[in-house]
Amino acid sequence: MNPQENSELLAALMRQEELLKQLIASINKPKLGLHSDAGSSKIYCNRHNGSLWYTLNNSEASAITQSALTGYLKELKFEKCERRGKEVYKLLITIQADRPYILESGHDTHFAKSVLAAIATLTPQQLYSPMTLQPTPGTTFG
């Protein structure tokens, strides 16, 4: 081989190595979300309907059987709203996965406090990576 052929071969091998690194990185990424329906999904995070989290379809609670949600944290906010005739504050957590998920929880619940405490320990760089939320039952109802 002449020097030009060696140089071209080396360049091709370096491109191939970079493509392999990108392929491995994409394979090792965690699967995002719970399911693949279009639009956003609101998830209620409490035990009022027999599971740790659930969705509402035509006012009917539907338990989420998956134990974890993985995605990118997009927004945290508190919202004042009315539930059962009372003014209450809710924590809304938007997670971008296969679609946006909006997790709703009372502002002073075990779930809300645990998520906020966990997020507070993350570095700015970690906030750019997918995170996994896996609710576990607390010792009190709520």
Structure description:
The chain has 142 residues and is an alpha+beta fold. The protein has a domain at 41-133. The chain is 25% helix and 34% strand. A 5-stranded mixed sheet has the order 1-6-5-4-7, with helices on one face. A hairpin with a 3-residue loop joins strand 5 (86-96) and strand 6 (100-106). It starts with a helix and ends in a 9-residue tail after the last strand.
Give the helices and strands as they follow along the chain: HEEEEEEHE
* Total strands: 7
- Indicate the mean pLDDT: 83
| Portion in beta strands | 25-35%
Helix content: 25-40%
Distance between the termini: 73 Å
Rounded to the nearest angstrom, the radius of gyration is 22 Å
Number of helices: 2
Low-confidence stretches: none
Helix-strand category:
alpha+beta
Shape: elongated
**Strand line-up across the major sheet:** 1-6-5-4-7
The main pleated sheet reads as: 5 strands, mixed
What is the subunit arrangement here?
A: single chain
Describe the structure concisely.
This protein is α+β, with helices and mostly antiparallel strands and 142 residues long. The protein has two helices and seven strands, in the order H-E-E-E-E-E-E-H-E. Strand 5 and strand 6 form a beta hairpin.
Keywords:
alpha+beta, 142 residues, 5-stranded mixed β-sheet, single chain, 2 helices, two-stranded antiparallel ribbon
List the helices and strands and how they pair.
Elements (H helix, E strand, L loop, with lengths): L2 H25 L13 E4 L9 E4 L2 E4 L5 E15 L2 E11 L3 E7 L3 H11 L10 E3 L9
Parallel strand pairs: 1-6
Antiparallel strand pairs: 2-3, 4-5, 4-7, 5-6
